[in-house]
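User: what does the whole thing look like in 3D?
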Amino acid sequence: MSRALSLLFPALLLLAGCLSKHQPVQAPRAMAVSVAGSMAVMDSPQVQAVPDSMVQVVSDLLVARNLTPKLADAADFVGPFATKRTTQHRLALLSDVSTDTDLLFLVETTVAYYSQMNGRYRWTVEVDATISPRDDLSQAFSAHFQVPVFLEHYHEKEAAALEAAVPLLERRLGALLDAYLGGL
Amino acid sequence: MNRNTTLALCAFALALPSVAVAGNADVGGYFRIAARPDLQGGDGKLGYWNLYGRLLNEGPYAAVEMKWDILERDPATRAVWTSLHAKVEGGSIMNADTGNGTLDNLRMSQVYVKAGNVALDRVTWRVGTLDTWFGQLGLYDMWPTRLFYETIGVSANYQTDWVDLLVGVGDSGYGIRGQDYDTILTPGGSVRFSLGNHLELGLGGEYRHEPYVPGNTKSAYHTPGVLYEDWIRGEVVESWVEENPDLLDYFPDPEGRDAHSYKAIGYLGFGGLGPIRWNNLFANYQRLHPESYTTESYGGRDIDIYVHDFTDQRYQINVGNELQLILWPHRLEAVWGVLYGRYWDDDNSIVPTDYDRTFYSTVLRLQAFATPTVHFLGESSIAQEISTNGNAYREHWDSIFTNSGGASDTRGLEFGDSDTRTTWQGKVGVVLNPLGPGIYTRPSLRLLYGVQYSNQHAAFGNAFVQSLDQFSDFELPEEDVHWHHLVALETEVWF
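Assistant: Here's the predicted 3D structure for the full assembly of 679 residues, as structure tokens:
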């Protein structure tokens, strides 16, 4: 038994290393992208910036696609986003504060508690992700999706839910970027 | 904003829906399924129960909860909102257990409506099933701080950043009595204080009161003049007839009782300190609700024996701690659990039961992340269960010959030849986690090997021959089975 296990583990590692990785679609040329990520929470007009871990993931997604992320200063958008509740208005704001980029990438999230379920706390993360040429918002391309999240502890709230959703968000946001860049 | 931008916005506005909030309908749930052959006559579990860790000791499970936003929450305002929740769950899936996934193994376990911002700010009202808890001992799959599990009623939950106050009241009659329903009023509540993200403290409890209603056959009663030992042996009517020949029609009438029970809970949580991700300490102290009646048959007649006074002194203390450690970020995590239970029944001093025992357990799980999705798991547990009313476990297949004093006692109330069961388990294997590292990240696809040693003979669910009859149709095992091995291919997912 021990010999079989000693052979099994390296074999699994080898297989894991041989798995083909997804090849991101590359932008036709180096392009700069203004990035803003917002998080709305229930029962509050305030909008917050997404956690740093998610910002990092979005940046990595862009870099992997020949895009240069330029993170919008959270102070420039979290306040105005409290009153600008539609994607189109938020894109326009992002366009106004970003003068030296080719594209805008806006990730709007809404995090809501669902219920206690089988020992965990279920949350739902709603995402509206939009990418658009900065100078032509009519060409915006967007996706809406929802990610379930299970947190283990009561003190883990909206930000923790969003961070827990990152592995799934990364996949969906990457697909959105690939779909958009494939058409350029 | 220039004119071109304005035009573009207009076009864009037509192309995009308005910002979305939670959808009208959402479905979440949990599934656990496994194939666990052991070739030792077991039923697919390594040991008897999850005192030795839930891993490999629990069967399949399915739960689906639907949430319908009748009036959606608006993230921007404190407007009124309401949602309907309905949950179906049960421990059976086709081909995975003896129930084969038939619907009678599932139950509509929860239905409730929540409403927020109605009448009181920051208060969420809930009407329906009220089941709630402070948290979970994940290694054991236990909820020591569970409240209102049997209750249907109304609760109000007030929440701020630093306090979470829950007050509820309802009826636990159907949850406890089932078809012998009697109203059991159940008020209760809990309060939890949060000091930042590093410390939490919680207290709570519930009280169950079943008032006697004269004439109601489902009220709590006790049949007078009955000996506890006769009841345990199922010989109450027989003894009565022996002492009162031909007077069965005058068997004592039951006397009404007010019944009550309670549960107090406590919780301390802390974390975010160095390698300590979080530590949960849960405790409860409870007095179980009395049983209603049992039935004995005598001379073709069924006689109900009401047993309030025989079952109203059952107490429990449960204390559990679970420590989550990040030993090497993204490479190695650990969870260490400790559990203690002390159960006593002041009505019973003569027969070993699950109401009279003490148990200790500790479980340690390590999970190493070779890659983000390929992990190695190792877990070990050791537990001891002590029956406080005498022998309750069989150490040997022929324990009848090695019991107390080596003499058979056909009227004895003990079982087996030991009052202590000591169990060690070890589990190792490969885990595939598509969503990345994390000892509790799901879904998990696992290939595991588990081994158990117990001083009890065949300490796992089995269908071995129990009789020592030399004319048994089946071959007698004729050797002690203290080791148990199995291989598991299983998956677990929340969604």
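In plain terms: The radius of gyration of chain B is 27 Å. Chain B has one domain: 112-494.
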